[in-house]
């Protein structure tokens, strides 16, 4: 499907090599259709990598999608060139008067901090509240999932003695939901986090539906407001090599990180990873776009409320 992106975004060249159809702004303007508008609040340090990972998954439907990247005014990223941020990202203040069919909020490397101690917490909760009236459906990933559940429902996070790190089998607890259409009985999802959610905390909130769970990694996915919000503890968007890069980055630096489980061939960190999650990742994002964004959003994007 055609993805409408800025013509100079670095991800475009990578995705074209993977035979993913990416449409530049000039060509998109010649099509007489309304594209779905998806805003991505990218809190990850390596923003270009995360951009590419998410765009890859959003490409797997026949719909045209216009992607807008949001940045925080209260935080300056250290690992992405300022020129890239200025060219491709817009402040929340600039976007706050607009409405979007969908939104994705990524994880962030601040999960061991108390929420209120995060330097940009006040801006984050302002954006979370804004999304409830300006976005049809929002995906909260990893830290953002825990932060969203804490802000909206008071759900605490709990520290882990060792990092939950690897690829874990998940069971869909509500397999008839459209988000799981086409899924197998179990599916795999990468995890990379130092904190967790507890099932017992979630069960105290009947307005929350725990929709996927792992016997090892615990709570996997939570849905709220009939699919207007999804909270995902893992990283279906990860590329095959992301866990490998994180593991080798932390070797000798942290003492609470083991080799990622269910990941390397023969558990040999010098061997190739086994990709167990790619197909379900594409299916999950396609189902989200189709059933919870495209079929739920009004034709006039300004009618979202």
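^ structure tokens above, recovered residues below v
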């Amino acid at each position: 499907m055609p993805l409408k992106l800025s013509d100079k975004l670095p991800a475009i060249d990578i995705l074209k090599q993977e035979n993913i159809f990416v449409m530049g702004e000039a060509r998109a303007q010649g099509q007489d259709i309304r594209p779905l508008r998806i805003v991505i609040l990218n809190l990850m340090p390596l923003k270009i990598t995360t951009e590419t990972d998410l765009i890859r998954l959003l490409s797997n439907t026949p719909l045209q999608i216009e992607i807008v990247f949001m940045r925080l005014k209260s935080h300056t990223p250290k690992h992405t060139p300022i020129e890239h941020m200025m060219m491709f990202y817009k402040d929340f203040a600039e976007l706050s008067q607009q409405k979007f069919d969908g939104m994705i909020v990524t994880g962030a490397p601040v999960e061991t901090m108390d929420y209120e101690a995060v330097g940009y917490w006040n801006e984050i909760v302002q954006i979370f509240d804004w999304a409830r009236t300006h976005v049809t459906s929002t995906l909260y990933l990893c830290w953002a999932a825990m932060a969203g559940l804490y802000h909206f429902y008071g759900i605490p996070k709990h520290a882990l003695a060792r990092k939950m790190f690897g690829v874990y089998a998940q069971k869909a607890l509500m397999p008839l939901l459209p988000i799981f259409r086409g899924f197998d009985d179990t599916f795999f999802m990468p995890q990379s986090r130092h904190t967790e959610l507890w099932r017992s905390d979630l069960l105290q909130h009947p307005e929350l539906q725990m929709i996927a769970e792992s016997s090892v990694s615990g709570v996997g996915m939570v849905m709220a407001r009939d699919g207007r919000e999804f909270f995902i503890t893992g990283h279906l968007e990860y590329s095959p090599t992301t866990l490998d890069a994180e593991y080798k980055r932390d070797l000798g630096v942290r003492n609470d990180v083991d080799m990622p489980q269910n990941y390397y061939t023969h558990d040999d960190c010098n061997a190739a990873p086994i990709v167990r999650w790619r197909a379900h990742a594409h299916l999950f994002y396609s189902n989200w776009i189709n059933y919870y964004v495209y079929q739920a959003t009004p034709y006039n994007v300004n009618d979202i409320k």
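Residues 27 and 118 are 41 Å apart (CA to CA).
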